[in-house]
Design a protein that fits this description.
Blueprint lengths: L3 H11 L8 H11 L3 E3 L6 E3 L1 H20 L3 E3 L4 E3 H5 L2 H7 L4 E6 L2 E9 L4 H11 L8 E10 L13 E11 L2 H21 L5 E5 L11 E8 L5 E11 L1 H5 L3 E3 L5 E3 L1 E8 L1 H10 L16 E5 L6 H16 L4 E3 L7 H10 L4 E5 L1 H6 L1 E6 L5 E5 L3 H26 L1 E3 L3 H10 L3 E6 L3 H11 L2 E6 L7 E2 L6 E2 L1 E6 L3
Length: about 475
């Protein structure tokens, strides 16, 4: 007969739906069971619980370092934007109109002008830039903002799509188109390196088609990741805005010949949907799996307590102190009333990369047990070498998780030469599909209507040669990446 503790241990894992049986339910089970979030009182909003917010803090810290290394300064702009600001750039406002949340009353007073709760900040930042920029000496102006935004979404899912979410938005101004384009591509590369180095999430990069680009941009570029269900996730975007906003907001500067010129601008951003991407790239039916770089807890120590517990607890404290001195995020779980098995399940569910087990017999042998979350492997290793072993294992786990994700993505890149071939392929094998495209948007609309797949990017790495457009059959030298997406 099972004890109550053992029943709870079995229940802990049983409550996660299988990825194969119900992927959407599996995802929701993980974000709740890993204690990342709770639902807010307003539809489409979530509460970041400490463990979930720690993931965002990790993202924020690493990206902020990269932004500063590329010469950007942090600023903060107001949440509320006058309606007249949005109306100045019509293609921009039309793109956001269905998602805008309005403030129409302050206290008991009806406002003379409606205020927008920011869906993005191009308009308010452009207004400030028109006051700040006067001469070529003021350029380039390279700003970044960490903020929350509001977009009134009809269909929501925690982290992936919520009405209010956290993000960063970069905004820069330059003297020439070439400088703006260089900035746009540089920040796309920053996102790619961050995704792969920090999140162990491989991506493909390229330019968005005209119907998929940001409203008000000349060009939009993006990084696209492939989730474990074969759907694409737009993980970050970088926009060359050209002079579309500067002409509307009168952002001019005197050049070296004392002639007035309009600036060229960029904007770029990632959001908390990266947390959703992180979950769906690495996790499994045992729960959350986290790369060591972002894991709030990189190592957990679970003592096996029998008989005289003092020697084991003393060694646990020593190991914890030693690992902290190495800069490793470590915690010891010495809670009473929970079996080691329960704790093992809990930390496996929460994605902790390394678990150290230590009992009286281990202490007698001068060893500890190291359990890896990524592979499930266990090793018996000497305590005396712990300070060398643990940092190396964290590196090994990071590299292995990136390799596994890369292999998955590469194995799920297919080709499709016709709509029927794409439709049949998506039934059997979801993933990225490379196809020839004649560059007519009408063909992409037909592909979407027939298959549900959208154009993710025109990839920088183009297929050599030429072929026939997937839709109309015209000769083409351009390849496009298609996929069903979040």
């Amino acid at each position: 007969m099972l004890t109550e503790e053992r029943k709870e241990e079995k229940k802990f894992v049983k409550e996660i739906e299988s990825m194969e049986e119900n992927y959407s339910r599996w995802y929701l089970d993980i974000v709740r069971k890993a204690d990342l979030m709770d639902y807010g009182p307003v539809k489409g909003t979530i509460i970041f619980k400490p463990y979930g917010y720690a993931l965002w803090e990790g993202i924020q810290k690493d990206l902020d370092r990269r932004f500063k290394e590329t010469g950007h300064d942090n600023v903060y702009f107001p949440l509320l934007i006058p309606e007249s600001y949005l109306q100045k750039e019509m293609s921009h406002v039309e793109g956001f109109a269905p998602e805008v949340a309005w403030v129409t009353q302050g206290g008991n007073e009806v406002l003379e002008e409606r205020l927008v709760i920011r869906p993005t900040s191009e308009t308010i930042i452009c207004s400030a830039m028109s006051d700040w920029i006067h001469s070529y000496r003021d350029l380039p102006l390279k700003l970044n903002q960490w903020a929350n935004v509001m977009r009134w979404e009809r269909s929501t899912k925690p982290f992936l799509r919520t009405s209010e979410f956290l993000w960063q938005e970069g905004h820069t101004a330059h003297a020439t188109y070439e400088e703006a384009e260089e900035e746009t591509l540089q920040m796309l590369q920053v996102y790619k390196e961050f995704a792969e180095e920090f999140l162990a999430m491989p991506v493909i990069t390229g330019r968005k088609t005209e119907n998929e680009k940001f409203a008000g941009a000349v060009h939009t570029y993006s990084i696209e990741a492939l989730m474990s269900d074969g759907k694409a996730l737009q993980a970050g975007t970088s926009h060359n805005l050209g002079q579309n906003f500067s002409k509307v907001f009168d952002i001019q500067f005197s050049d070296q010949e004392n002639q007035l010129q309009y600036v060229y601008q960029t904007s770029w951003g990632v959001s908390t949907r990266l947390i959703g991407g992180l979950i769906m790239t690495h996790s499994d039916d045992r729960g959350l799996a986290l790369p060591p770089t972002i894991a709030p807890v990189q190592v957990v120590i679970v003592p096996i307590l029998r008989g005289d517990t003092e020697p084991v607890l003393n060694m646990v404290a020593t190991i914890e102190k030693e690992l902290k001195c190495l800069g490793i995020r470590v915690k010891s779980d010495v809670r009473d009333g929970m079996s080691p098995g329960w704790k093992f399940n809990e930390y496996e569910m929460r994605g902790v990369p390394i678990r150290i087990e230590l009992g009286p017999k281990d202490l007698e042998k001068g060893q500890f047990v190291l359990a890896r979350r990524d592979t499930g492997d266990k090793e018996f290793l000497p305590i005396a070498e712990l300070a060398t072993i643990i940092p190396q294992r964290l590196i090994d786990i990071q590299e292995n998780m990136l390799l596994k994700a890369k292999t998955f993505m590469e194995e799920h890149i297919y080709t499709a030469d016709t709509i029927d071939e794409l439709k049949a392929g998506l039934i059997e094998n979801r993933g990225f599909y490379e196809s020839w495209w004649c560059e007519d948007i009408a063909c992409l609309e037909e592909v979407k209507a027939e298959t549900g797949a959208t154009a993710r990017v025109i990839p920088f790495e183009q297929r050599s040669g030429s072929g026939k457009c997937i839709c109309c059959g015209k000769d083409s030298t351009t390849t496009i990446v298609l996929a069903r997406a979040y």
